[in-house]
Design a protein that fits this description.
Structural class: alpha/beta
Number of domains: 2
Number of strands: 13
Strand content: 15-25%
CATH superfamily of the largest domain: P-loop containing nucleotide triphosphate hydrolases
Order of helices and strands: HEEEHHEEEHHEHEEHEHEHHEEHHHH
Oligomer: single chain
CATH class of the largest domain: Alpha Beta
Shape: globular
Strand order of the largest sheet: 9-8-10-11-7-12-13
Distance between the termini: 45 Å
Length: about 350
């Protein structure tokens, strides 16, 4: 057992999402979004480096020492997998570990709307799951891919950096590819995937023009593509995809996106009020003929209105999702007010006047 594993065990027991180990500081856990120090001595650079290198493959150590940055995955059988990031900072080495549960939760277990499962059964197109860092995008995508695995007989390729959730092939054949280990980049893996007879492609992060362009190409040529972006709403997601392209290509991209985009799920996490943990609030945009026309005609500013009128189809706004959580007493009015967009919807629920700096 590696020395660092004791921290992972404590992390798991405390229900923490992240473990921060930084030279010059005590270890810190992120629990329900808050940073909490572990009662342990301040970590010295040499001690921490030895602790981290004990669980790190030699090839990864070489990459870190050459670049000052490293992403990879570490697994403790029977406990969990961890997405690791190493970095150099003023006082020495630092590392952050995000826990990836060994059990993949279903849409129902996560408390997500049932419409999310329908995306797993689409035959082709692009589905984007978006939100800020740490908003649960990977967990939602894992539930979708797992549902497809149980209910389809297809070939699924995942492209990630690093591999997070590991799926056991059920109805589907699943191949996991890790950037930097099994392939050079997201774009090179996507380009190769088109020759590997896939039905479903999961792109862990659509972070640059080439990756987004290839994902659009794959989704418009008969494949079902799932991807993530760091955007906070459905409207901003559509705009982000278009704006990443040069101005002289954007009209054509609007047409392509209007035809290939099937859904956008934008989510954020809120602290639970009734028990320990966090719960997701979702904005769901389903691309109908009306939505497709708005994308094509560069009228994405009208998408929030379409979401409001599309509730019977499974669409929902982020604020309505937050209000629903509030009615169910799953979140506090203060937490709801902080995370909502239209503050006026939550003000009647507040026990005292809102903080003008929220």
């Amino acid at each position: 057992m590696a020395k660092i594993d004791a921290f992972f065990k404590l992390m798991h027991e405390q229900g923490a999402s992240d473990l921060h180990l930084v030279s010059g500081s005590q270890p810190i856990l992120r629990i329900q979004g808050d940073m909490e120090r572990i009662k342990y001595k301040v970590l010295e650079n040499d001690e921490l480096k030895e602790m981290l290198y004990e669980i790190t493959p030699e090839t990864k150590i070489k990459v870190f020492e050459e670049t000052g940055d490293l992403d990879y995955a570490y697994e403790i059988p029977g406990l969990a997998r961890y997405r690791a990031n190493f970095f150099e900072q003023k006082y020495g080495i630092g590392a952050v570990f995000r826990e990836i549960p060994s059990e993949i939760l279903t849409v129902e277990q996560l408390g997500l709307p049932s419409v999310i499962n329908r995306f797993a059964l689409l035959q082709k197109g692009l589905v984007l799951v978006t939100g800020p860092t740490g908003s649960g995008k990977s967990t939602t995508l894992a539930a979708i891919i797992d549902y497809a695995n149980k209910n389809r007989k297809d070939h699924i390729i995942t492209i990630e950096d690093p591999i997070e959730f590991v799926y056991k092939s059920r109805g589907c054949i699943i191949n996991h590819r890790e950037v930097g280990v099994h392939t050079k980049s997201f774009s090179s893996a996507l380009r190769a995937a088109l020759r590997e007879d896939p039905d479903i492609i999961l792109v862990g992060e659509m972070r640059d023009l080439e990756t987004i362009s290839l994902a659009l190409e794959a989704s418009s040529t008969g494949h079902l593509v799932f991807g993530t972006l760091h955007t906070q709403s459905a409207t901003k997601t559509v705009d982000r995809v278009i704006d990443v392209f040069p101005a002289d290509q954007q009209d054509q991209i609007r047409v392509t996106l209007s035809e290939s985009l099937k859904a956008v799920v934008a989510q954020t996490l809120l602290k639970r009020a009734e028990k320990k943990g966090r719960v997701a609030a979702l904005e769901v945009l389903i691309v109908t003929a009306a939505v497709s026309n708005l994308i094509r005609e560069a009228k994405t500013y009208q998408l929030p209105s379409v979401i409001q009128t599309g509730k019977r189809m499974g669409m929902m706004s982020l604020d309505d999702s937050i209000v629903d959580l509030l009615h169910k007493k799953q979140v506090s009015s203060e937490e709801a007010y902080e995370k909502c967009i239209d503050k006026g919807k939550i003000e009647p629920f507040l026990k005292k006047p809102p903080d003008i700096f929220s």
